[in-house]
Amino acid sequence: VSREGDDEVAFADAQAELARLLARHAAGDRSGRVLAMIPVVVLNMHYSGLGIARSLAPHGVPVFGLSSSRGFPGNRSRYCTYVPSPDSLLEPEALCEFLLRFADRCAERPILLPTRDHDIEFLLRHRDVLEQKFRIPLAPAPVVEAAMNKDACFEVAARCGISLPRTFTVRDSA
What we know:
The chain is an alpha/beta fold. It has six helices and four strands; from the N terminus they run αβαββαβααα. β1, α2 and β2 (63-67) form a beta-alpha-beta unit. The longest helix has 24 residues, at 4-27.
């Protein structure tokens, strides 16, 4: 099933929403200058994505919520423009291409925010390509990988002198 037609409609809707938000923002600027707001692209509009949109949109930040699942609660929020997209876990290459095309349609380099572990792993794998078109507020790969690995995170915390409860790692199913 081709998504190209759906992509074009989603891009057109997203562009129209961005133009509307910029016009509304500019109308409040007495100098007549258009204040370009940096758009935020949120990967997956489940509850975390919805929280991000609810935090940013009231301040005039254009938020675009990308989700492969049409049933996510944030997709219907007034705080974002929902854009159907490939999934970071199931279709990572298609999502990477989709994001690059999406960024090409934005006047400003958007901020790209992950909401799930799969999204973070996707960004780590495709960071070099995506950072050319997006602002990605993510720590360097070794830091992120240590934070996502419970054993490694525990070891780093212990080396830093952080008091931790005694922890055991089960390595055998017996």
